[in-house]
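Homework help board

Subject: predicted structure for assignment chain

Our instructor gave us this sequence and asked us to write out the predicted structure in token form, then describe one feature. I got the tokens but I'm not sure how to describe them. Can anyone check?
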Amino acid sequence: MENTTPVATTESSPSIGIRAEDLRAINHGLAQVLSDTFTLYVKTQGYHWNVTGPHFRALHLMFEEQYIELRDSADDIAERMRALGSGAPGSLSEFLDHATITDNEPKTDAMAMVMTLAADHETIARLIRPLVDVAEDAGDGATADLLNARLAAHEKTAWMLRSFAAE
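My token output:
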């Protein structure tokens, strides 16, 4: 079941020109994006470790590039949440409570891994797109910029994965 609130902190809301209700909405969305990002990071690293077959080397390296990018972006998202006065999910349980991406289901087929990851990146892109509007409507250009960068990264990664599977 999806958790609908960001992680609470003992801090007061920051006085940064964004209404408290907008901060709550933005942080709720960021908690989901962070949780999906971290869940996808773990899944991608698992695929990196376990991929086999004639495209082993290419996929092993591609998955590594992808999980490193996801790991780094998770840190950026969590730090943005903290700057906006929220705690950030920080345990596997919290990530799974907030995430829409499903946990890794072991697959032995490399192309199934590729297509699963492509679909997961598309899922996160669909999640992020309306959050950009929420951030922009609240006057939170920094979060909108972060989300737009994440949107572009997920769309590009999904394209690359789909292109690999089209061989």
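Reply (TA_rk): Your tokens look well-formed. For the description, you could write something like this. The domain at 20-165 is CATH 1.20.1260.10 (Ferritin). That's the kind of observation they're looking for.
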